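Fill in residues.
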């Protein structure tokens, strides 16, 4: 997929795999797609490509496919779409981001930030758009009570199931991307922590029948993330004045998202689900609404929000420190211009300047 200049690395070497991982993985995806064309391999290929665990109900004498549930075969589907995300990542990197990188001549640090934001921005925007669309169709807002009255949501529409399959697959694909994108060692720990938290929370909501609640929280969370990704792209491109407004918008939406997430979680998990609490977990019906699980859900969300708020504060402090030299330079230059203007040096019209000029001529 990538056309590299110069000598090609040896086949199956580490550098060869990194440079051509998009082509290699796309060929793997094509093998699954070709499997749909043959009757002998079609059932196996469908397990990886099509949504599994469908539930059919008889409606007015007709067999109609209506909903989906969760199951072990979802692991095969998640694996396939993780490969698809790797291909999408490689396409965006080569045909969009690399062209901008060549134009702006960025440093290695900015290069990594630009690539991260450029790959995640489309995902965040698409995730918010699909989530809002499904929330409106399911009428979850403004009827918030449906979020706990409809629990457990063991059956999902195709779009809701596919949404969560793609969400889980996306964050899984981020782990091999650390290798493919040659991520710096000091950045790996932070990114692995972030990817693991996404994967843990989304997978837990999917398995524990909390898809409707998770979809609203994800939509809220992804809005400031999308603004931050867009702003960082603008900042790396050198548009510092424009990016300063973007960082301000991100800061406001970030704080609002944290408040909204904690408030909704307390309302839904503690007060809403508390009305229909059960004594023991019922795995058959998919009901995990016990007091212990609810406390664990609430504590996990609040702790993660606190951790994100702490990272946000540290980020703002670092930005302020980085901007101090530039501010000091601007202040010094401004004071110098003011002093020169008072002494008449700005237009070379003061008596002292004229006298010095006359002495030089003599």
């Amino acid at each position: 997929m990538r056309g590299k200049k110069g000598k090609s690395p040896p086949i199956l070497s580490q550098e060869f795999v990194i440079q051509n991982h998009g082509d290699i993985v796309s060929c793997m995806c094509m093998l699954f797609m070709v499997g749909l064309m043959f009757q002998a391999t079609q059932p196996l290929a469908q397990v990886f490509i099509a949504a599994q665990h469908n539930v059919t109900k008889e409606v007015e004498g007709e067999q109609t496919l209506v909903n989906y549930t969760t199951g072990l075969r979802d692991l095969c589907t998640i694996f396939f779409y993780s490969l698809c995300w790797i291909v999408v990542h490689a396409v965006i990197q080569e045909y969009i981001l690399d062209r901008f990188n060549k134009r702006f001549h960025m440093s290695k640090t900015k290069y990594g930030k630009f690539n991260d934001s450029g790959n995640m921005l489309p995902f965040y925007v698409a995730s918010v758009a699909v989530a809002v669309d499904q929330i409106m169709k399911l009428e979850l807002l403004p009827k918030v009570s449906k979020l706990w009255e409809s629990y457990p949501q063991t059956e999902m529409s195709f779009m809701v199931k596919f949404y969560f399959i793609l969400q889980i697959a996306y964050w899984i694909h981020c782990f091999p991307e650390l290798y493919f994108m040659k991520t710096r060692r000091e950045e790996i720990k932070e990114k692995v922590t972030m990817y693991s938290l996404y994967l843990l929370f989304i997978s837990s909501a999917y398995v524990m029948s909390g898809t409707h609640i998770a979809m609203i929280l994800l939509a809220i969370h992804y809005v400031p993330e999308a603004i931050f990704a867009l702003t960082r792209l603008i900042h790396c491109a050198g548009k510092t004045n424009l990016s300063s407004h973007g960082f301000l918008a991100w800061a406001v939406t970030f704080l609002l998202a944290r408040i909204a997430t904690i408030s909704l979680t307390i309302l839904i998990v503690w007060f809403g689900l508390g009305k229909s609490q059960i004594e023991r977990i019922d795995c058959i019906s998919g009901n995990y609404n016990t007091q212990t699980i609810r406390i664990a859900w609430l504590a996990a969300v609040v702790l993660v929000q606190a951790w994100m708020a702490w990272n946000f504060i540290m980020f703002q402090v670092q930005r302020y420190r980085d901007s101090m030299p530039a501010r000091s330079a601007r202040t010094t230059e401004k004071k110098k211009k003011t002093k020169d203007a008072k002494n008449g040096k700005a237009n070379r019209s003061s008596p002292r300047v004229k006298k010095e000029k006359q002495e030089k001529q003599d």
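The first helix runs from residue 14 to 19.
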